[in-house]
Amino acid sequence: MAEMTRGVAPKTYASRAWWALSVACLVAVIGILFAIFAFVLARGVPALRPELFFTPTHGIAGGLSNAIVGTFYLVAIGLFMVIVVGLGTAIWTVEFAPPTGQKVIRFMVDVLAGIPSIVVGYFLYVALVETAGWGFSLIAGSLALAIFMLPYVVRAADVALTNVPTALKEGAFALGARPAMVISSINFPYALPGILTGVLVATGIGLGETAPLIYTAGWSNYLPQLALTHSPVGYLTYVVWTYISQPFEESHQLAYAAAALLMIFVFLTNLLARSFVEYKLGGNRQRN
Amino acid sequence: MAAINLSVRDAAAKKAASPPILQRVSAQAIARVVTGVAALISFGIIFLMLFFLVAYAYPAIRFNGLGFFISPIWNIGNQYGSGTVTRAGFSAEAGASFGALVFIFGSVVTAVITMIFAVPLSLMVALSLVYRVPRQIRPLANALVELMAGVPSVVYGLWGLVVLVPWIGGALAPWVTAHLGFIPFLGGASGSGNGLAASVFILALMVIPIMVATTRDVILAQSTSLFEASMALGSTSWQAMTWAVVPSVRKGVVASVLLAFGRALGETIAVLMVCGAAINSFPQNFFSPVNTIAAVIVSQLESALTDASGMAQRSLAELACVLFIITLLVNVIARGIMRGADRREGAKA
């Protein structure tokens, strides 16, 4: 008996030590990330003065209104494009595609998700800004965001539409509904929470992107005009990136304020997305 | 939604007199074509990207030749009218040399060192998240991990620039070079803090949440019977985890590591803010300035725009092609492995 405990004990201690180490890693990673968030919010939130929202940047100081409105335009137009194309892709994949087509689309969309954002940005710089001669513009910037957001929307909509119970669809057909009617009144309402979650996750990602916009949206100190081409647009991530390297306290304040705003926006979209997931789970449970 | 419903009903009411079969066929045909076009766009974007980038970079590919991958010197040439140099039928300003070796090397080294730190850490974090975090706070921990994955990279870059870089330059690097300088790659000049170490640190923080989330999911998807059987055979819970459960999901783990590697290779703005933007020099030690393909495409744009011959811009496009192809390969391999793993798990279930 004594021998046995002697034989068992060391490996139990080793196990405990390893587990302790793994928990320490978890605490360390969450701790460092918390420190980052706390640092940015602690510097940025006090810098968020009300007039920032109504004054555009000028030179190294001013407000953020041009960047906030620009970010909003870029993401909104990008979302519009990505919802049209992404939903269409998902519907085709789920409803119409032959098995090979399904596999190919899913694979290509997965691969697209791994393409670095700077490559997307440079592609659109070459194709739209240079070759088409549209210059730094709203349309080029929102297209860059749309390409980057596309995989998230397609995947979410694909999963959501695939999970619509076949029995429901068949029931609708049996009652004489036409395909368009089945898609609009059975598939979509059922899949909507899942699709919205994907769209919100994509929104968060679009809000925080910098690299694909540098080459496509450019930068402007003025409020964006509603011109799609030949008119550069300001956005929040640019302020964070460039203003922090300026040697002036005012520009640092702007950079922190922009970073805090971005984090707040991203947290909000994430929270909304989570609430949709929960709504969806609740809904499914009720239906079952 | 309501509008769609209404219009469908209106259309149905209006066409009630026409033959229903014909209408059904045509509505479905329209839906098929419209969604098919959308799918074609999603399918074709990657090819369109590759086509445009290669076509635009073609003069640079011919002009630079193999030197692009061999030469460490990036120089857009003399811009003050001292003539041009022509190679393979394409010309750039005199003295121009577009060698990308420093950037390609920098990308690979940064990403590989990042993974050396991030992979064990992520595994440990994922294991403790699955087996050691109390059930009550697990949703919170999961939400946190996903939130971290969504934080804009420029925010990480901001923190890196303001907090991490001064700390590395002022405290960590001097201490390490003084006390651990006998280890190769750790001795020598301690630098300003901008460089390889800062890039690796920031990249690790950015890819860890991604790897943790995917590793956690594949471990959770594995049934508990393996863990229980291993425990029944007398192993400790740690041994059961690391000898039975983790090896059984190794394909999923490898795929998630590759995906994170692709992310690390392609990350631009956070790296650009802390890497020190080295040009024409390789990192001498862990604290030297470095540069990556993604970062150099942004940091060299303004200088490239001043190149009257346009060859610098085209060479940047060639760099984008190289990054595109590297990440494409990494991703295709990762997805292939992941699919294999899914199929195996599906067959088992």
Gyration radius over CA of chain A: 24 Å
**Based on the structure given, which CATH architecture of one domain in chain B is correct?**
Orthogonal Bundle
Cross-sheet strand order for the largest sheet of chain B: 1-4
Estimate the mean pLDDT confidence of chain B. 81
H-E string of chain B: HHHEEEEHHHHHHHHHHH
CATH architecture of chain A: Orthogonal Bundle
CATH class assignment of one domain in chain B = Mainly Alpha
The secondary-structure element order of chain A is HEEHHHHHHHHH
- Work out the oligomeric state of the chains in this entry: heterodimer
Distance between the first and last residues' Cα of chain A: 54 Å
CATH topology tier name of chain A: MetI-like fold
Short description:
The complex is a heterodimer of chains A (288) and B (349). Chain A has 288 residues and is mainly α. The radius of gyration of chain A is 24 Å and the shape is globular.
Question: What would you say this structure looks like, in words?
Answer:
The complex is a heterodimer of chains A (288) and B (349). With 288 residues, chain A is mostly helical. The longest helix of chain A has 46 residues, at 2-47. In chain A, helix 2 (65-96) packs parallel to helix 5, helix 2 packs antiparallel against helix 7 and helix 4 (117-131) crosses helix 5. Chain A has a single domain, classed as MetI-like fold (Orthogonal Bundle). Helix content of chain A is 77%, strand content 1%. In chain A, a hairpin with a 2-residue loop joins strand 1 (57-58) and strand 2 (61-62). Chain B has 349 residues and is mainly alpha-helical. Chain B has a domain at 100-299: MetI-like (MetI-like fold). Chain B is built from 14 helices and 4 strands. In chain B, a hairpin with a 2-residue loop joins strand 2 (84-87) and strand 3 (90-93). Chain B starts with a helix and ends with a helix. The model of chain B has no long low-confidence stretch (mean pLDDT 81). The interface between A and B is large, with 92 and 90 residues.
